[in-house]
Specification:
alpha+beta; Glutaredoxin; 2 domains
Amino acid sequence: MENKKINIMGSEVVDGFECKPKVLDSNKPIMHYKTLIYVCEDERCSKASGVDKAKELREILKDINIETGKNRIKVSRSMCQGACRFRQVMQINENTKANGYEPNNGIWLKHTHKFTREEYEELFLALSLNKSLDNFSSIDMKVYGDINE
């Protein structure tokens, strides 16, 4: 018996993919997210981390149960974001039309290839609970967002 892979929207997945549905249903709504994180996976950034960072982060989100639901955090890959001097970077985008937390919208994180799993868990939990990252001092998040930096 063949094990079918099902994505979080309940669709059967194309072999070799994480979530690409075998049958496109254009009537299904786009899945809600509270926070969207773009992870740079261009040449320099991906070499810095040495792993498929987006996949790793999605697994962490599943483990802490915030890959679905009202406080869902979505991770998407991006190509170069123009911040190569900081190696792997991530940009946080809050869904302010829904329940996103505006003070965290547009924050950039640098050197994210150095974050530990525990630091990512702490970051994701803070985002899901709408805690401001501006004064996030329990871990060295290397947060920047000021135009003068």
